[in-house]
UniProtKB/TrEMBL annotation, chain A:
<dbReference type="InterPro" id="IPR036388">
    <property type="entry name" value="WH-like_DNA-bd_sf"/>
</dbReference>
<keyword id="KW-0804">Transcription</keyword>
<keyword id="KW-0238">DNA-binding</keyword>
<dbReference type="GO" id="GO:0000156">
    <property type="term" value="F:phosphorelay response regulator activity"/>
</dbReference>
<feature type="DNA-binding region" description="OmpR/PhoB-type">
    <location>
        <begin position="124"/>
        <end position="222"/>
    </location>
</feature>
<keyword id="KW-0963">Cytoplasm</keyword>
<feature type="domain" description="OmpR/PhoB-type">
    <location>
        <begin position="124"/>
        <end position="222"/>
    </location>
</feature>
<dbReference type="InterPro" id="IPR001789">
    <property type="entry name" value="Sig_transdc_resp-reg_receiver"/>
</dbReference>
<dbReference type="InterPro" id="IPR011006">
    <property type="entry name" value="CheY-like_superfamily"/>
</dbReference>
<keyword id="KW-0597">Phosphoprotein</keyword>
<dbReference type="Pfam" id="PF00486">
    <property type="entry name" value="Trans_reg_C"/>
</dbReference>
<dbReference type="GO" id="GO:0032993">
    <property type="term" value="C:protein-DNA complex"/>
</dbReference>
<dbReference type="InterPro" id="IPR001867">
    <property type="entry name" value="OmpR/PhoB-type_DNA-bd"/>
</dbReference>
<keyword id="KW-0010">Activator</keyword>
<feature type="domain" description="Response regulatory">
    <location>
        <begin position="3"/>
        <end position="116"/>
    </location>
</feature>
<dbReference type="InterPro" id="IPR039420">
    <property type="entry name" value="WalR-like"/>
</dbReference>
<dbReference type="GO" id="GO:0000976">
    <property type="term" value="F:transcription cis-regulatory region binding"/>
</dbReference>
């Protein structure tokens, strides 16, 4: 089970996040100060930390630096809106992402999932294919003039296909890689996603296309 | 007038009177001494003041006494001796006293005359009092008449001035009790007319403002009441003992949605009223619209994910001067709208670029779009494209009103290209300065 450390001096905030994360199947350890967090880390194995910047004694940046140096776990910083300039400082201290307070829980969940997926699969490389560049770290696709953001699943399908261009991927391979072995959805899911990616590619990267190999699966190739 | 008399009339007057006196003397010389007195009486009654003195120094007045009777005996003697006295001609000149009217013996003409062998001196001057008495009355009457007439005129003019002002005052009083339909019947081309015109304009605007305010309050109460009502109803439903898990979740979600809406509404109302008070922006700073957009997109990425939407951006605009938090609000409102009114799986395109002396930010969605009629109201407060304030989409109907306000504060403009089911492109143009 994935264990998440939540650090904030606002106890109600921490409790709320804990309850919500539990609901989505995450285990949560909480700390109300930087010191407490660092102490906790000595005894607990944690997969990801969500840390508030504004804390007494040791602030979020310091905690992030320590955590990154010793444990190398992903960190999401919480920042108030008026200190949004701090995000640069946050990235320098090694954080992977940041969220601006007040936030909706869904936003936090989205970011936690995105980061965990990235760490899990070690897919932060950049793939260049045709006129586009697929950035696994930011989940963005660069074309010559634009930056595209695809829904995560579509992005991952595209990235998978682009990882070995012109090779055919079967539906099962795609499902296993993108949705996970335990995925209980139907076969149509892949078809639907492929169709959507095709639509988007046709406007943004018309030099690429996904070809259906009847009875086998899909491949990504340049238009000739 | 006095000068005129001295300059031109005096001489004539003297000569004329001397001639009359000479005539009188000739007439009197033909009488005997017993007839002299009645004759003089008669002459006196005919409009002359006469003074007659004989060689013995006995003088008599006829036709009213002179106001001043200063004339040296020597002079009278020379007249008795046969000289003619030209008192009128030689009457000393005084600036403010018209010599003509000076009722003095000095101001007369004297002629010698002999009655029954006795030498006399006859002094005459026209009896101005008598002659002018009636004229004076006439002039006096005329003067009083003129005065009355001018007072009447003034009253009329004043009335003409005051009437519209009184009228305006009445209308103002009516306005104070919120009655705006009293007609203003002032049709003039002068300043009062202009005043009435501006007054009418002001009244119209006030009426409109009041109407808007009432509408606004109505809207606010409606938009606060209905979520509260929903919360109450669904909480009551949740109290029922035999609810399925699914129902419970559904009801709770509704309560949650409504509280979110309420919170959003109050926040936006606050920012709108704050914006209403701002007429000129302060704390302008150089800022990168592109960075702001990246930030906004990042914040909304999970919402895009929820609807499985794609987004592309090409951010190429230069930095401008602006108020960072306010503009950030604009981008957030625009992107949130674009997502809200898009179908699942839709795409959003965001573009910023330089455009002569301004920058343009355009956000295009493939969503439900707006009809022309909807577009006309889109920037009004509390207007929501989803009819009947349906609760299907969240939102308060204040987002675009806030956008408009902030963009106008930045001296920018907004253009919209849309059509039903054709998606919407909103372009913001901001001056580079």
């Amino acid at each position: 089970m994935t264990r998440i450390l939540v650090v904030d001096d606002d106890q109600n905030m921490v409790k709320f996040v804990q309850i919500e994360l539990n609901r989505f199947g995450y285990e949560v350890v909480s700390a109300y100060s930087g010191n407490e967090a660092l102490l906790l880390m000595r005894t607990q194995k944690v997969d990801l930390a969500v840390i508030d910047i504004m804390m007494p004694e040791i602030n979020g940046f310091e905690v992030t630096k320590e955590l990154k140096k010793i444990y190398e776990i992903p960190v999401i910083l919480l920042t108030a809106r008026h200190q949004i300039e701090d995000k640069e400082k946050g990235f320098k201290s090694g954080s992977d992402d940041y969220i601006v307070k007040p936030f909706e829980f869904k936003e936090l969940l989205f970011r936690i999932q995105a980061i965990l997926r990235r760490y899990d699969k070690h897919q932060d490389e950049i793939i260049c294919i045709g006129s586009i560049k697929i950035d696994g770290r930011s989940y963005e696709v660069q074309t010559a003039s634009e930056t595209l953001m695809l829904p995560l699943k579509e992005f991952e399908v595209l990235r998978l296909l682009a990882s070995r261009p012109k090779s055919v991927f079967t539906r099962d391979q795609i499902i296993e890689s993108v949705w996970g072995i335990n995925y209980a959805g139907d076969d149509q899911t892949v078809n639907v996603h492929i169709k959507r990616i095709r639509n988007r590619l046709s406007t943004w990267a018309p030099d690429l296309q996904i070809t259906t190999v009847r009875g086998v699966g899909y491949k990504l190739e340049g238009v000739t | 007038m006095n000068t005129y008399y001295h300059q031109f009339v005096k001489e004539d007057n003297d000569a004329k009177n001397v001639a009359i006196a000479t005539e009188m003397a000739t007439y009197l010389e033909g009488l005997d001494s017993s007839q002299l007195s009645p004759a003089l009486d008669m002459l006196g009654a005919s409009g002359y003041q006469l003074y007659i003195e004989d060689e013995k120094g006995i003088g008599l007045f006829y036709g009213g006494a002179y106001r001043e009777k200063i004339l040296s005996e020597d002079l009278i003697s020379t007249v008795i001796a046969g000289d003619v006295y030209h008192g009128m001609l030689n009457f000393p000149r005084k600036t403010f006293v018209t010599g003509f009217f000076a009722n003095e013996l000095r101001n007369s003409v004297g002629v010698p005359l002999t009655v029954d062998g006795i030498e006399h001196a006859l002094f005459i001057r026209p009896n101005i009092d008598m002659l002018f008495g009636e004229l004076r009355l006439l002039f006096g009457g005329l003067a009083i008449g003129l005065m009355l007439l001018s007072i009447l005129g003034m009253i009329l003019v004043a009335k003409k001035l005051i009437d519209p002002i009184t009228h305006l005052t009445n209308v103002t009083k009516k306005m104070a009790i919120e009655s705006f339909d009293e007609p203003i019947n002032i049709h003039r081309k002068d300043e009062i007319g202009q005043l009435a015109e501006s007054f009418q304009l002001m009244r119209g605007q006030l009426k409109e403002l009041l109407k808007k305010r009432k509408e606004f309050v109505n809207n606010v109460s409606h938009d606060i009441q209905s979520p509260l009502h929903n919360i109450q109803s669904y909480l009551t439903l949740l109290d029922q003992p035999d609810l399925s898990k699914k129902q419970q979740t559904a009801y709770r979600n509704i309560v949650h949605l409504e509280t979110t809406r309420l919170s959003q509404l109050t926040k936006q109302l606050l920012s709108l009223t704050t914006l209403d008070e701002v007429t000129k922006l302060q704390d302008l700073e150089p800022l990168s619209i592109n960075t702001q957009w990246l930030e906004t997109i990042k914040r909304f990425r999970w919402k895009l994910e929820e609807k499985e939407m794609g987004l592309s951006h090409s951010l190429k605009a230069d930095n401008i001067m602006g108020n960072a938090p306010l503009l950030q609000t604009v981008w957030e409102n625009l992107l949130s709208n674009a997502i809200k009114y898009s179908e699942k799986n839709g795409n959003i395109y965001i573009e910023t670029y330089n455009d002569d002396n301004q920058i343009t930010i355009s956000i295009h969605d493939e969503g439900i779009g707006m009809s022309e009629e909807q577009l006309n109201q889109a920037f009004d407060r509390f207007y929501r494209v989803d009819k009947a304030r349906s609760r299907k989409t969240e939102g308060t109907g204040l987002g675009l009103a806030i956008v408009k306000n902030i963009i106008h504060l930045h001296k920018g403009s907004i253009t919209v290209k849309t059509g039903l089911q054709e998606g919407t492109t909103i372009s913001i143009h901001l001056p580079k300065e």
